[in-house]
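Protocol step 4 of 5: obtain the predicted structure for the target chain.
Materials: sequence only (see below). No template structures provided, no constraints applied. The aim of this step is simply to have a reference model before the mutagenesis design in step 5. Sequence pasted as it appears in the construct record:
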Amino acid sequence: MLAALFDGHKDLFVYPGESGFFYKFYPVFDDLKLSDSEKERWAVKAILKALDDILREWVGSDACPGYSFAKLKESFRECLQTGQKKTRDFFTAVIYAAWKTLSQSSEDQKCWVEKTTSVEIYAATLFEWYPEAKFIHLLRDPRDNYAAIKAGWEKEYCHYFDSKERLLQSVIDRGKLGMEFAELNQKRYGRDRYFIVRYEDLVTDPVTTLKKIAGFLNISYQVSLLTPSFCGIPWDGNNFENKKFHSISRGSLGRWKKRITPHEAKVIEHNFRPVMERFGYASCYTEIEAADAATEHYKWFNYAQTYSLKTPASRKRLRRKL
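Step 4 output (structure tokens):
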């Protein structure tokens, strides 16, 4: 949502969607002994093609006049030729290609915005690549965060995880790391380069919060920041429940109480309690209640590290061993 709010600001170019550069290309393809041409082909296939898929529904609209995948690839290669074809050059070329192809007011834009999940762990790399960069880290109550992800179990996450317990463990691993890195990165780089925003503050007091963000970015506050858009077209959200939002909504605040089980909430509180408290998220269960739930969760976790019983084949293999 935050990226969608930036989309309508005249000073900013917002990369549509998520580039995925930090899990589709870097660091894996940075380490492999591939030729520059092989890396180039992979960037086109894995990143630009994903952007093309996102933009297909906008082709021919006012947001993307004259758009074509050929033009996107041409701009990418044009930018790549000007650098040394290091990893930073590939990322820059991806952003440049999107900007060159989609932006209609490029002369007014001062900087670009890109959002990638868990990118806070690459903060040191990004500040090395772009010394003048600024980082906005959006936090959310981890219970609501898990509730939003769990809502996508049937549509998406059941294809990646063998159980909801493993999905919960993934949120613990990544979510806790993310909140800890928020603290560490701001301490390391300073508040003038690393800004932390709570989702709850954004949706309950958007004007005040967005004015603070605008000040951090050295851009003017504009009313357009209150209306989410995608390539200039009104954006209606990306939640798994197909609910449509045309403005900032607080409708999802605290809904974890109805969307996840008490067991899941207790496990999250056990793992997140200290960092939750530091960011103003109150626990609902006692430490003992949370610890007991965490015990049950890790009974599963220790076993699941060895055996996965999701498929009939895996259950059959276990019976053979017995």
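Step 4 remarks: The CA atoms of residues 75 and 97 lie 5 Å apart. The first helix runs from residue 2 to 6.
Proceed to step 5.
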